[in-house]
Every structure is written in C-alpha cells, then in structure tokens.
Design brief:
Length: about 220
C-alpha cells in the first residue's frame, strides 16, 4: 500500500459534473489499494475573481483569500462525487492529517495566503510521508516553457528537482499566478524525497495508469533526484 497525494488543478472542475464523477471514480478505485489525499485548486474561476479584486484595489493577501474560497468550493464539488472520503473539507494540513488518519481518503482546498494548492499538496505529502505526488493539470507534462504560448517548447519526460526549480524560478510569484507547479512545493518535495508526476487530467486513462503506478512511457513527466 502506498500513500499518494493528488493535486488537481481547478480547470478540471470547469468540465462539469460528468467529468468530476469520472475523476472521482478513478480516485475511489485507487483508494481501495492505497491511502490517498487530494488537494484541489481554483483554476480560471479563482484567477478571474482575483483579477476583479485586484482592479478593486485588493492587496495580495486578500486576493489569495478569494482564491482559497474558490478552491474549497471545488473541493466540496469533488467530495459530492466521492462519498468514501472523510466527510469534511480540511482547512489546514494538520486537519487533513487528522482526517486522513481516520479515513485514509481526504479532500482539501487552499489553506493560507501565499501558499498555492500545489504548495499545500507538497506540505501534506511531506506530513503524510507519501511516496508520490500526482499533479493533475491541463497539459501532458513539464515543458521548457509554457506550450500554450511557446508551441515549439520541448517536453521534459524526466528531470531532477534542481532542473524543475530552475524552470520555476523564472516565473513571477504573485496572487493568481498559473504555473505548472509551485516553486515552494518543488523545494518541499525535493527535501522530502517524494516523486512528482505531472500529467494531463483530460486523459483519464493516463491518470488512472499513473495512480496504478504503471510505467510512464512518456505519457507524463516525472521529477525525482
């Protein structure tokens, strides 16, 4: 039995109830053989609220709080499709640890201003002594640059944490930033020795295979030292 943390990007929740149900079924099936904790992001909806708040003069802490509210709504949506999870949304890593010890399947959103849900997932993975963190996003792995704005960017099937950190340090740190993974989270995973898998959540068969610990065969990116 493995302990696996899943960080699901908020973009997944824009696909509607049917897609959320499919994601939940895969998680529920994997939870029969592994212990799983899930963190949920805010995605485009959170970024839109943050932008409106910024235009209204909100400071970064307040803007982060807006995003956190959205992540917890998304977490609640996932929990509706995942009745086997502990029946409360954890509001802190410590609370998630407590719920996890009682049920072995827990869902949470954001926690603290300044910490993305990727960072929260890394903190939780370290706290739970997880072996793997799966980052479910809307691209099929790690690229040298954002493939949406740089179509010629090369996909990186495997790299070390130092490589990933070098890529992430080029990104700007502010409320609403949309990166493939969080810089703080990468540093936490590095020190904890936890493998990071980055995959496209739109490809449900890929997500299921990753949860079943099957070989990547280039279908997702892996980061480990």
């Amino acid at each position: 039995m493995h302990t696996i943390v899943i960080s699901i990007g908020g973009s997944v929740f824009l696909k509607g109830a049917e897609y959320i149900m499919k994601i939940a079924r895969i998680i529920d099936g994997a939870a029969k053989e592994n212990r799983i904790a899930v963190t949920v992001g805010g995605g485009r909806v959170a970024r839109e609220y943050i932008q409106i708040g910024r235009e209204l003069g909100g400071d970064n802490t307040t803007l982060d709080e807006l995003g956190i509210y959205v992540t917890r709504i998304n977490a609640r949506l996932l929990m509706l499709a995942l009745p086997s999870a502990y029946p409360r949304i954890a509001s802190s890593v410590e609370e998630a640890y407590e719920f996890f010890s009682l049920r072995g399947l827990v869902v949470m959103g954001g926690t603290t201003p300044g910490h993305t849900t990727d960072a929260v997932s890394a903190m939780l993975a370290e706290k739970l002594r997880a072996q793997i963190l799966i980052n479910v996003t809307n691209v099929d792995g790690l690229y040298e640059a954002d493939p949406k704005t740089h179509p010629d960017a090369k996909k990186i099937n495997h790299c070390t944490y130092d490589d990933l950190i070098n890529i992430l340090t080029k990104s700007e740190l502010q409320a609403g930033t949309n990166n493939i993974f969080d810089l703080l989270g990468a540093k936490i995973l590095k020190r904890a020795g936890i493998k990071l898998i980055i995959l496209n959540g739109e490809k449900l068969d890929v997500f299921q295979d990753a949860l079943q610990l099957k070989p990547s065969d280039g279908r997702w990116s892996e980061v480990y030292d």
